[in-house]
Amino acid sequence: MYKLDFFTQYCQFYLVNKAEVSEMDDLEFWNEKALEERLAVEKNTLGITVENDFSIVKGELEVLDAPNERLDPQADHIVEGSLEINSGAMEIQDCPTSDTILEVPLENGPYRVRIYSYNLDNPYNETDDRNPNDHYRIEVWKEELSERTVLKQWFPNH
Asked: What's this model's pTM, rounded to 2 decimal places?
């Protein structure tokens, strides 16, 4: 398991196939559906939305042998997307500089990525803005490529 604790900007970060990165500022990448479903998808890149606009990402990433059969009922939003790895590694990159935050070695092939988002209704910590309440769990396993799928949709209170 990898712990996540890093700064990004524009309320987003990326999971990318190390060898090839898609165009992430393209309006088609962050289209209306991607924004609503909190996941932008290209062949080599997944864009993940962060709720706190301090853009601090807290959470964890775990590589699994198979998908968890039971979804975490505590999550506010759960979405899945696919990523093709042909470089032997997946990187977590920040926005907008695409600096590598974490490199995760993976066998080449297709992967499914599930993102759990927590505390989206109350993402801000009133006493410590370096420690937001929202956090994210990312699960990755080998599986054939398929469309983005929302398993639990969150709708903002505002």
From this structure: 0.93
